[in-house]
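Structure representation.

___
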Amino acid sequence: MRSIAQPGTATPERIQWVEARGRAFAFTMAAGLPLLEAARRGFAEAGFSGGVLSMRGGALGPFAYVMPALSKTGANAAFYSDTFRPAGVTRLKLGAMTLGERDGAPFFHCHGLWTEGDGRLHGGHVLPEESIVAEPFVVEAFGLDGAVFTAASDPETNFKLFGPVARATTNARAESRAFALRLRPNQDFAAALETFCRQHGVLRARIHGGVGSTIGARFTDGRSVVPFATELAINAGVITPDADGTLQATLDVALVDYLGGIAEGRLLRGDNPVLMTMELVLEVV
């Protein structure tokens, strides 16, 4: 399997996880607010301090983002491009977001695809501080009670990354058993989820959110992405047993690579290792 050397030493525990409770719900991102504040308010109104969400459309402007890029210093296995600030209103095609905390304040990690004012399709990593909701739009969210994604320094990758940590439960109406996960580098995406579910007695699970990166990509239809650094969003995902009872992860994703190439499709099981991180929530169903 493909692998990329990271600047730091790999920790033995390859999946960071916290079991929690959660609930799926929808809310409207309010126009005129920074995307971060609109997301925070939506979760707060449902009784949650954070969780994950999926976007199937929407409008942002002003808007700012970065793309994956090669590292200029060697301090990281890959890095970010300079900031892009397209003119006019940017129309989201899809996106995934993790809403958590960084330095004691709300923060998010968000990847997606979008059409900019010039009509061209682009993708990457949305910047919370400079992206404003231009028009109201509805998102699908999953709030967490008992866990929160918190940004912390990661010696292995030399980045400050989101990972789940336990948090005291609240009075939020959390209806489902859920696991907040962060997959560490150089392990197959699908296989890691399948193994995790087996180890925790999970027979069926639905993926909510899903933000991270893979080392290129291989799809079930034979297509491949060769450039190794990607920014990826999960569009849909489930873990279910096949006819023999073997758990299989079905992962539909969208990504952009560091050369600007965009790809969407179903990932091939066993051939899509994580590059830096992969954050998501598994809802037991």
User: Anything to note?
Assistant: The chain has a mean pLDDT of 97. The longest helix spans residues 35-45. DSSP finds two helices and 19 strands in the chain.
